[in-house]
Structures are given as structure tokens and as C-alpha cells.
């Protein structure tokens, strides 16, 4: 089973990407959306996966940064 | 029908993204892969859609820049 985790921080770039991109994913993919505003404990997990900015999509462990909303430093200090 | 166009320029970042990301897309999506090395006439079309760097995925007209391979200026001058 393919696993996709979409990490975001509620910024407008993130919300746009979430709404549009997730609709293009295969329905068979196990998609999880993580908003750091709701669960900041997931930040370290995202950084371990190589996430440097949000929004980011981690596909089977490989991070893909999408456009640019905010750096992880901004997420942690925001 | 949803339309996805993946623009790239053959760089390693592009090839990795193409191989991994396209496998996550819904099989019902009409996916087109455009390599500027094969068809430089598509560069202006990509720029019109808002593509500023490759690899980029344009989903129903909305551009999403993925990680970072090369700027469009580098593509044009390369």
C-alpha cells in the first residue's frame, strides 16, 4: 500500500495545494494530512523525513516540497 | 476529466520526481509528461501556466513546483 503524508501549517499556499493536489492522488493511496497547528509533535517526524518547508508531500518516505509556504524554522517559531 | 502535465528538463531531481510522484496519481487522471529537451517549443506554454522552475506539475492549469531542479532561465539557456 502506498503511503502519502501531506504536511502543512495552515498557510494559504498550503490550503490551496491540499485542496487541489490531494484530489489527483490515486484513491488507493493511504493519505494522511498533518496540520502542525493541530499537532506540533509531528514536526520532528517531518524533519526526520527531510521536510524543509511546507506544504510538503512525503511519498513512501521521500519528501517533495510543493511551491513554498513557510520554512520549518518559521513553523517552529510561529 | 482531470488533466496533469509534468514538465521537466531531464535533471536528476526531475527524474526522481517523475518516477515516484506519477505513480501516486489517480489512474483516471490524464497525465502528460513534457521533457523540454525533447520539445523546447513547450517552454512558452509552461511559462504561461506560471511554471518558474522544473520539475513542475500543472494540475488543471494550476502550477505546483516540486523540490527544485532548475529555473526556467536555466532551462532556456541550457
TrEMBL record, chains A, B:
Task: Look up the domain of life of the source.
Answer: Bacteria
Residue span(s) of domain Thioredoxin-like fold: 9-64
Checking Gene3D superfamilies in the record gives: Glutaredoxin (3.40.30.10)
InterPro entries membership:
Thioredoxin-like_fold, Thioredoxin-like_sf
Protein name, as recorded:
Thioredoxin family protein
Q: Which organism is it from?
A: Lentibacillus salicampi
